[in-house]
Design brief:
- 31% of the residues lie in helices and 20% in strands.
- It has eight helices and 15 strands.
- The chain has an eight-stranded mixed sheet, with helices on both faces. A four-stranded antiparallel sheet has the order 9-10-11-12, with helices on one face. A three-stranded antiparallel sheet has the order 13-15-14.
- The chain is globular and about 50 Å long.
């Protein structure tokens, strides 16, 4: 059922205006295990796309409140309402995604925002992160994967196995992680990590010096028991690719970055102490061989 301005619409009734709509979650079936409730604020000017995506997310047991533009969403939050995560279209008339993000931050809103765009290239991703988004995703992404990402973001950087909670700011030598805003800094320089890469770094750094298995790293990205690749250990290749991506991002700041080490056949570790890079190398100097784990 869909609620718009307090009126209920049945399955055969098609409302004319989906500018601001609240989509309620369908009830759980007896055969499903209930998940933590998560509400998404969906902001997109395309009525048809917004309606379809909202319904797809509801099918994944997410609550959705939908808006046709940034101003309507800002009014909603100004009235004291909230949500767990915002899904924001990047290219919108009147108030663009970038402008909406700026106004969110100016209003003091600390809700994590994921940018959704039809052109998710590096330039757009970097711009979204610069304006305060925690991630940027392509509109073509499968709704199931999108729902998983939104749940991970909404849960924040909290541990899943009873470990001590990760603080709002985590410091490991030259690394500083701001877990609420998903921002990473290396020797004071911002590192352009996606939210997925940030969570991997957060996991490894929070357990610096400890070997973290492939499966646990993959669980941070996709959730427990998510299957990928062929065979029992098919996800290993996915994790290696993710680690290569993380290293490339850090090398944009420090060409000799070497804080992530590989434990062949098992997983990865974040170095517990110095040295963090090659002896005597300049942090922005020419790339050289990385000690202890250059290869994934």
């Amino acid at each position: 059922m869909i609620q718009i301005n307090g009126k209920n619409f049945g399955a055969r009734t098609r409302p004319q205006d989906f500018g601001t709509a609240t989509f309620s979650k369908k009830p759980f079936s007896d055969k499903k295990v209930p998940q933590e409730p998560v509400t998404v604020a969906l902001i997109d000017d395309d009525d048809a796309f917004r309606e379809q995506l909202a319904r797809n997310l509801i099918e994944k047991d997410l609550g959705v409140v939908a808006f046709g533009g940034g101003n309507a969403a800002l009014d909603y939050f100004a009235a004291g309402h909230g949500c767990d995560v915002v899904l924001l279209d990047w290219n919108m008339p009147i108030l663009s995604g970038a402008e909406t993000l700026d106004r969110f931050r100016a209003a003091g809103l600390r809700i994590p925002v994921v940018v959704l765009t039809a052109c998710c290239d590096e330039k757009t991703e970097e711009a979204a992160l610069d304006h305060g988004a925690v991630d940027a995703l392509d509109k073509s992404r499968n709704a199931s994967i999108l729902a998983k990402r939104l749940r991970i973001i909404a849960r924040g950087a909290q541990p899943r196995d009873g470990r001590e909670a990760i603080p709002d700011m985590l410091v490991r030598g030259p690394l500083t992680l701001k877990t609420k805003t998903h921002r990473a800094f290396w020797r004071g320089e911002p590192v352009p990590l996606t939210v997925t890469a940030f969570r991997i770094v957060c996991l490894l750094a929070s357990r610096a010096g400890e070997d973290v298995p492939y499966r646990e790293i993959y669980d941070v990205v996709h959730g427990k028991a998510f299957k990928a690749g062929e065979g029992v250990n098919g996800f290993h290749a996915n994790v290696r690719s993710l680690i290569r991506h993380v290293r490339r991002k850090f090398r944009m700041v420090d060409a000799n970055f070497a804080a992530i080490e590989n434990y062949p056949g098992f997983g990865y570790r974040w170095r517990a102490a110095e040295p963090w890079r090659r002896e005597g190398a300049d942090s922005r100097g020419a790339a050289g061989p990385w000690p202890g784990g250059a290869a994934a």
